[in-house]
Design a protein that fits this description.
By secondary structure, the protein is of the alpha+beta class. The chain has 5 helices and 8 strands, in the order E-E-E-E-H-E-H-E-H-E-E-H-H. Strands 4-3-2-1-5-8-7-6 form an 8-stranded mixed sheet, sandwiched between helices. Helix 1 packs across helix 3 and helix 4 packs across helix 5.
Length: about 230
């Protein structure tokens, strides 16, 4: 579904998930496959030292250094979804805060985002992965300036739901910006109230969202589960 929605960039970008019941192993997509090519059996299992313990292939280097360190240093980040999806990445390329809290979809992320202002080149060592993890702190979402976004969550359903709505929020903001008219941010107290209202039903909604995606893909591209 990430491929269908245009979240991929060639064979780059990576999704990972700590293996259920094993805090020392994580699932990640292998280097060399586009999102549209990946099926359940394509995923590989790695440890936090970079060893592949199951599956064919290896993780892309930046995938390992970012995701392994993120999972290791932030145990609550069971799932980590990193993309260069176009609208969110575009807003990570401009000065100032990426989101201006002018749209309802954006308010889902109010008080939950960090901004990494210090692009440091490719993540090819543990120091860079640690730096990104530290920048995120307790936030679920990070805009990586001049780079892309990182979305984390306790479950695949919740992380996916955030990834989807983050890109939608960024797309709507960019369309509003093209009018040339000033954006109208929501007052901070109302933004905080709305964010809390959204969190009440987020978990159930996220699981229903993922179930919907599974039904669509099962009907139209059943090979995803092979």
């Amino acid at each position: 579904m990430a491929a269908r929605l245009g979240y991929h960039e060639g064979i780059c970008n990576h999704f990972s998930c700590v293996l259920p019941g094993r805090d020392d192993l994580f699932l990640v997509n292998p280097y060399g496959l586009a999102f549209s090519e990946i099926t359940a059996s394509s995923l590989i299992i790695c440890d936090f030292n970079g060893n592949v313990v199951e599956g064919d292939g290896v993780p892309e280097a930046t995938a390992f250094y970012i995701h392994a360190r993120l999972h290791l240093r932030r145990p609550n980040a069971r799932v980590a979804l990193h993309t260069h999806m176009p609208h969110a990445t575009a807003l990570a390329m401009v000065e100032g805060d990426p989101l201006v809290w002018a749209g309802q979809s954006a308010l889902k992320f109010y008080g939950r985002t960090a901004v990494d202002e210090n692009y440091n080149g490719l993540a090819l060592d543990t120091d860079e992965g640690d730096r990104i993890a530290d920048t995120m702190g307790d936030n679920d979402i990070a805009f990586l300036k001049n780079h892309g976004v990182m979305v984390t969550g306790p479950t695949i359903a919740e992380a996916w739901d955030d990834l989807y709505y983050l890109e939608r929020a960024c797309e709507l903001q960019m369309k509003a910006m093209t009018t040339g008219r000033p954006l109208k941010p929501v007052a901070p107290d109302i933004a905080a109230k709305t964010a809390q209202q959204m969190r009440v039903g987020d978990r159930e909604s996220a699981y229903l969202h993922l179930d919907s995606i599974k039904r669509i893909l099962t009907r139209e591209e059943p090979e995803f589960a092979t």
